[in-house]
Amino acid sequence: MASYQWFLLLGCLMLARGLWGTPIARLPFTSAIIYLAIGILLGPMGLHFFVFDVFAAAPLLEVLTEVAVLISLFSAGIKMPVPFSRRRWGPPIRLAWAAMVLSVGLITLFCCTVLDLPLGAGVLLGALLAPTDPVLASDVQLRHAGDEDPLRFTLGCEAGMNDGSAFPFVMLGLGLLGLHDLGDNGLRWLGIELIWATLGAILIGGVCGMALARVNFTLRASRPGHEVLDDLMGLGLIAVVYGLGLAAHVWGFLAVFCAGVALRQTEQMLARRNAVVTDTDAPPSVSHGSLLFKEHMERLSELTLVLLLGGAVTTLLFDWRSWVLALFLFFVARPVSVLVALAGSRTTPRMRVIAAWFGVRGIGSLYYLMYAINHGLPQPLAQQLINLTLAVIVLSIVVHGTSVTPLLDRFWRK
């Protein structure tokens, strides 16, 4: 497709999404399915207007998916309910860590025994597919900053944290394939990439988020009428936290999510302490002012990336192994890991079952795949993992996208 055709296509899709936002939101499926269908129609499976080679475009695609995930994670972080409580955060922490480890282990076992992949490739594929997606799963996550729904909070918080908990297993898979140094007996991986990279990300994100909230609150309190550009401050916080995370060799995705959480928690704490207004009528804040812009960026990235994903769909994605892997992930690995992780928690049985089903895979998995390819994954193995991962993402968009509205309306109506 020529450049003007891309502009026309993206422009028409954005106009349609903007003009008919409410009717589209009421459809029994998500907007991602529409973008995917258009991409498949225009791609090699349809009219062949364009073909998107994922392996060749891996460097560009890594940057695009990286930015999309960062914005989505920050948006998810500033929607987290206030105040923070261990009882409320217990279930998502179980999902982000215990369920993650179980999912990676089950997928690895399946890949090594059924798909005949080497151990390193199995661990890597498990790390690609185990985390839920913060971009495409917006329909089952918190809708606004004051949303107190426990199911949406649990799923949104899980998607925000498991992007950090999945990265150690990505590095473990690359290490088992000989593409990364795990250290003697894996001690480097355990000490630096699992423990330090996780705790350091929480520390950096938390400190930066709290610092910006205090600076902003003090500035606005001491200088009434002082104009602050919330959008730029939010984007600046994302960039600074992610840059510090990369420099300190911690998981930047987790750091950005924690920065969003700490920013909103601190802003609301300062507002309550100074008895300015109630939480329902919050004073101007970075989290409140920049949230709308971040959501618009999320929609744009979802449209663009899912459209390109449709152009990457070929007949290779419909190999029997892709279908079997997707079915195993949706009906065995995800439900088993969630139900085991939430056993003994204070969640209701209905909530556990719904959470076990809505493990949406999407842009996050695509980013990890591009990261692995750009770190030396051999092309034959890379192409195999591309086919498996893209097939699971496509099926997840269709299966979860068509079931989210009916199931939530039927079983989770307030």
How much of the sequence lies in strands comes to: under 5%
Number of domains: 1
CATH-assigned fold name:
Na+/H+ antiporter like fold
Report the sheet with the most strands, covering strand number, pairing sense and barrel closure. none
Order of helices and strands: HHHHHHHHHHHHHHHH
Query: CATH first level: which class?
Result: Mainly Alpha
CATH-scheme architecture? Up-down Bundle
- Structural class category: mainly alpha
The tally of helices reads 16
**Radius of gyration over all CA atoms, rounded:** 21 Å
**Poorly predicted residue ranges:** 277-282
Q: How many angstroms does the end-to-end distance come to?
A: 46 Å
List how many beta strands DSSP finds: 0
Look at the structure and give the mean pLDDT: 87
Helix content: over 70%
Short description:
The chain is mainly alpha-helical. It is 72% helix and 0% strand. It has 16 helices and no strands.
How would you portray this structure in words?
- The protein is mainly α and 414 residues long.
- The protein has one domain (30-411): Na+/H+ antiporter like fold.
- The chain is built from 16 helices and no strands.
- Helix 5 (86-113) crosses helix 7, helix 6 runs antiparallel to helix 15 (363-373) and helix 13 (320-341) crosses helix 16 (379-411).
- The termini are far apart.
- 47% of the residues are buried.
- Residues 277-282 have low confidence and may be disordered.
